[in-house]
Amino acid sequence: MDKTASAPNAHDAAVLEGVTPAVRAELEKLAIRSAFDLLLHLPLRYLDETRLCPIGDALPGKTVQLEGTVVSAGVKYQPRKMLVCEVEDGSGHLTLRFFNFYGSQLKTLSSGTRLRLLGEVRPGFLGLEMVHPQYRPVRGGQPLAEALTPVYPTTAGLSQAALRKLIARAFVQCGLDEILPAALLAPLQLPPLNDSLRYLHYPPPDASLDALEERTHDAWQRLKFDELLAQQLSMRRHYQRRR
User: Which one of 42, 64, 112, 185 is CB 3.0 to 4.6 Å from 190, fit for a cystine?
Assistant: First the structure.
């Protein structure tokens, strides 16, 4: 759906409260000027952080979330300088490689540390590996995400975490009233607009990634319908003005 300029209102002020001028400038690059613009800033793809994949079940070429214990970590200089970390979970073994790293990472990745990892699995010389995965130390039983994690179009100066926080705030502050009658939506089997946007920003764990990323899910169909309807109405108004 196209974003159209609108005058700032109380919802926008609440959502953008505390946002620095630098972040506002980055939002402007994305044509985000209001709470509604945030709701229409839709994900490009999703990460599945709702489940853990045993290392032994991980397949090359797949992006998965794993959890394992560091068994060794150190800096190697052949064929180039890199931080190499070995992780295992009882089902298998995984090598982590970091070509750009800080010395402090060696402390974080010390032997015995339990890590939650997210990244693409690749075949390596000594088995499976990940290069520059996302990672964080965890304790046993730490809860998983309840929805798929959206990955948004963004700029170098605006992090995914910052965007997600602003979009979550927009949902709280900006209620969306349905503008189309049920008599129109029901025959077309289209869901309400608010439900569609919530689904696209926070898909449940069992959502079809293919349907979401190929934009064939009912939630996407609703937004496509609204955009087409808006275009048709705009063309009709333009035609009537010319008569």
Answer: 185
132: left (phi over 0), alpha (psi -120 to 50) or beta: left
Domain segments of the chain: what residues? 10-47+149-242, 55-137
Query: Cis before residue 60, ω within 30 degrees of 0?
Result: no
Cβ 124 vs Cβ 94: under 8 Å: no
pTM here?
0.80
Hey, what long-range contacts does 190-199 have (CB within 8 A, 24 or more apart)?
A: 190/218, 190/221, 190/222, 190/225, 191/218, 191/219, 191/222, 192/222, 193/222, 193/223, 193/226, 195/219, 196/220, 196/222, 196/223, 197/39, 197/40, 197/223, 198/171
Whether the Cβ atoms of residue 139 and residue 153 lie closer than 8 Å to each other: no
Task: Compute mean pLDDT per 10 residues along the chain, 243 residues long, and list them.
Answer: 51 77 94 92 95 96 95 91 95 95 89 96 93 92 91 95 94 83 90 95 94 94 92 86 77
Backbone φ and ψ for 193, nearest 5 degrees, come out as -60, -45
3-class secondary structure, 190: coil
**Domain at 55-137, CATH class:** mainly beta
Task: Report helix, strand or coil for 30.
Answer: coil
- DSSP for 65-111, please give it: EEEEEEEEEEEE-SSS-EEEEEEE-SS-EEEEEESS--THHHHHT-T
Q: Read off the DSSP letter of residue 192.
A: P
CA distance 95 to 223: 42
Taking the C-alpha atoms of residue 40 and residue 226, their distance in angstroms, rounded to an integer, is 12
